[in-house]
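Action item from last week, closing it out:
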Amino acid sequence: MSPLIVLVGPMGVGKSTVGQLLAERLGTGYRDTDDDIVAAQGRTIAEIFVEEGESAFRAIEKQAVREALAGHDGVLALGGGAVLDPDTRALLAGQRVVYLSMDVEEAVKRTGLNAARPLLAINPRKQWRELMEARRHLYEEVATVVVATDGRTPEEVTRAALDALELKEA
């Protein structure tokens, strides 16, 4: 068993919204590894970051992604930093991966770059740019297709992803 589609991309790009739309259009289930982590840990991702640090969170995330890739056959959304782990990137090889991309101005509009995002608590624009500089090549490395989300509605992004993957709606 493996997912029909895996979504990757930065925080706030719309993985959850587009993932749910893709699942509806394809007549399949939707799963988000961030939701899995929150449910299993009984606390928010921000709380895990504050209480245990990023490295502890990444270890939890790595396991959640491994379990979801092995146990879900619908649309799967990964957290923004999941691609940082080389083992996770290896597991994504051969998967149908959609990288949802956006520029910093779109990120500002969508997330407000607020402190609820633990990695963006101080100087959010600068940190977002730095995160993307560190991650963009990793998203591109694992991607089957890249779909730009800038200036597009979730429905338009969903249609673009289906078209890029040459998938038909259920």
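Closing note: Strands lie at 5-8, 30-32, 75-77, 97-101, 145-148.
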